[in-house]
Design brief:
Layout (H helix, E strand, L loop, with lengths): L19 H4 L3 H4 L1 H21 L23 H12 L3 H14 L2 H14 L1 H5 L18 H38 L4 E6 L2 E7 H20 L4 E2 L9 H6 L5 H12 L3 E2 L10 H30 L2 E3 L18 H23 L10 H6 L2 H20 L1 E3 L1 H9 L6 H13 L8 H9 L6 H9 L5 H9 L9 H4 L6
Amino acid sequence: MKITDISPAIALSPLDGRYHSQTAPLVEYLSEAALNRERMRVEIEWMILLANGFDNDAAHPDSQAAIIGGVTPFTTEEIAYLRAIPEDFDADSIEELAKIEAKTHHDVKAIEYYIDRRLDNASATLGAQTELSRLKPLVHFACTSEDINNISYARCIKNAVQLVWVPNVQTIVDLLGSRAQQYRDLAMLSLTHGQPATPTTLGKELAVYVYRINRQLKHLEQQDYLGKINGATGTFGAHLAAYPEVDWAAVSREFVVNRMGLTWNPLTTQIESHDWQAEVYSTISHVNRILHNLAVDVWMYISRGVFAQEPVKGATGSSTMPHKVNPIRFENAEANMEISCSLLDTLAQTLVESRWQRDLTDSTTQRNVGSAIGYSLLALNNLLGGLQAIHPNIAVIEEELNNNWEVLGEPIQTAMRAEALLGKEGMDNPYEQVKELMRGHHISQQDVQSFIDSLNYDPQTAQRLRNLTPATYTGIADSLVDFATR
C-alpha cells in the first residue's frame, strides 16, 4: 500500500505530523482555514460598516445611515446572522469552500461566493422581509483581494504572536527569572575564551538572558500591525467612481483602526508594504537567536557538569550506552530555532519588495508564516522542557572554584594599581608581577595569600584580599539580578 493512499492524509511537515500536539495552538491563527475564516470576518465587517455607517460617537455625530446609497442599514438580527458566517466555519464549511475554489481558482473570490450563498439563504433564518440576498453586490465592494488579505494576515499574525508565541516565551522568561533569583548567590567559575576567569553567579548569568529577551518583548509590545483598504492601486479610484461624495480615506481609517484593531496605512500600492511583518519576523528571529545562545550555553554547562539532568523514567538516552542522559531537548531547540530563523529571515527580506504596484511573490511567501513561527514554538517547547529538567551540580561548581585560585590575580593586581596611585612602594608593574606568579601555573590558596603578604598593602586592603576566595569574588553579581525584571 502506498502511504499517499492512507486516509486521513499523512502529514508531510513534522509540524503537522510528529510535533502536531506542540504546534496545534498556531492552527487557530496561521492555518489556511484560519486565514479563510479571517477573510470572511473582514468581508462581513466591511459590509456592516458600509451599510450601517460609523459608530454613533462624538467623532461622527451624524452616523445614522449607510455610507453608500441603495442600502438599508442592517438590523441587529441581520448583523448577528452575518457575523455568524465566519464563526460557524467548520469542517463541512472548509470542504464547501475548497469546492468553490476548485472552480474559481482564486481563494478570495471563493470567499465572496461562499458568503453569497449564505446571503441567498438568509430568508430561511431571518424571514422573507430580510434584504440580505439583494445586497450581494455589497460583498467585496470596491475591494481588491489584497484589501482583504492584508488585513486578514495582520489579524492572524497579531493573534498568533500575542496569544500563542509571546506567552510561551514569557513562560521561559518567568522560569529563568525565578531561577535567577533562586541562584543569585550561587558562585560559579566563569570561562572567557573557554579559560577560567572572574567568578560570577549562576543567577546573574541567567538574569542576562531575562534582560535580553525582555528588551525584545518590549519591541513586540510596541509593534504596529498595519492594514489598508484602498483599492487596486491604493488610490480609492473605484470607490470614488461609485460614490464621489464619500470621504473614503476616513472610511478606510475607521475600518482598519476601529473595526479591525490595526494601524492604518494610508499610502500603499496594491499591497500593504509588509514592513511591519519584516519588523515582527526580525524580532522573533532575534529572540530565537538569544534563546539559541542559551541552549548552547546550557548544553555546555551540562557537558562541563555544572548542570545535572534529571532522567525521564523509561526514556532511552542511547541505543547502546544505557548510562547516558543526552541533552537532546537543548539540541532540538537549537535545530528548530535555526530552521525558524532561516524562514523568518527569508520572510523579512522578501516581503518588503514588490514589482511596481503588485506581484504575487508575497502570496506564496506568506503561506509559510505558520511554519516559521511553528518551528520557533516547537523550539520554545523543547527549551522549556530542558530547563525544567536540570539543576545545578553544587559539588562540581564548588570543585571548579576551589581548583582555580588564579582567578584572584585580577583583584590582587587591581588593588596594587590603587596602592601605586597612592605612592606605595613595591607596587610597580602590578599586572606583570601577578602574571609572573600565576600565568601557566597551578595556584593554591597558600600561594595567593603568600603573595598578598609579600606586598606593601595597607592592613585593611591586605585583609580584604586575604578574605577573598574564588567563591566570594563575585562583585555585586547577586544584586545585578534585580535589574533583569525592572
